Structures are given as structure tokens and as C-alpha cells.
Amino acid sequence: MASMPEHEPNASAVITHHVKDAHTEHYENWLGEIVPLCKTYPGHLGVLVIRPVVGATTTFTVVIRFDTREHLCTWMQSEDRKRLIEKAKPFLIEDDRFLVRSGLDFWFTPEAAKAKLPTRWKQFLVTWSAIFPLSLIMVPTMDLMLNRLGLPDNRYVKTMCVTFVVVLLMVYVVMPRYTKLVHRWLFR
Prior knowledge:
The protein has six helices and four strands, in the order βαββααβααα. The chain is an alpha+beta fold and 188 residues long. The chain folds into two domains: 9-103, Alpha-Beta Plaits (2-Layer Sandwich), CATH 3.30.70; 120-186, no CATH class. β2 (44-50) and β3 (59-68) form a beta hairpin. α4 crosses α5 (155-181).
């Protein structure tokens, strides 16, 4: 696990599981067992399960949030979790992998979780340089799409749609590729 001060609020674990095609239903049932148990641990704030795109990926991403790193570590190292991870192993292509992070750090984490993170100013520049052109493209694109759908010009609806698409593209398309492209500069 990455080091993080014990007092830092809202610690999160990002867990990836590559599920075998024939075991998706078993894995979903397993989630139905582990998620409620996780919620019983002190400091639990929430669980988000990002399911794979059917026909495209087999990766489930589970984000677990706790109020402190200490509470998160209590869950991650608990006998309950260890027992349930063992139970899930037959459904997985590879072992349970997770990172503990805060903020947007997970965008900048190389494959080796023990690697150091780039400085905040570099994270800022890379994030801004990706969001700025996406926003420039998405605002007129969303105007066009909303007009074609015959929807009234409403800045709240437009802003909601633009930010939704920009964040979606940032997380799933742009940042995974962009951080690989600028990796040498980021971690210099």
C-alpha cells in the first residue's frame, strides 16, 4: 500500500479484478457478499463498483472509501476480506490488486504501485492541459447535440452534459494514454 498520513481524511482503495468470462455471475454474487460486510467496518463512507463494458473488457474496478487511512487499512487487512478474496480467486484471471490513494493521484500512478508520484504542479499542468482542449471541443459539440434533440438552451443541462463527458473521457480514454505519453517528464 502507498504511504499516506494516518490522519488524512477520506482514504480510498482502488481495486481491480480481471474476471474470467464464465465467472461474471459468480463474481457479481461475491460482490453481493463482500460489499455489505465492508459497510459494517468503522469509518466506511462508500463503495463504487465500475463494471466492465460488455464485450470489451473483463475488468471490475471497485473504489472503497473510508474516513481515515487507519480505518481503510483495518478493512483491507481484515480476516473477513482475506477470506472473501480467497473465495473469489477461482473467478479471477489474476490476483487481487489495489492502490490506496487520495485526490486525483490515481491518474498519475505508474503500474508499479511503489513508484513515487509526480509533483503536484506537474499533475496540475497535465490535468489542465487535457481538460482545456476537451472543454473547448465539448461545449460546441454539446450545443449542437442539444439543439438537434430539440432541447431548450439551458446552461445547467449543458454544463452537466459537458462535465459528464469530459470526466468520462478523462478517466477512461485520455488520462491513461496521456500519462503514459508524458511519463518521462512527469517522473523526472
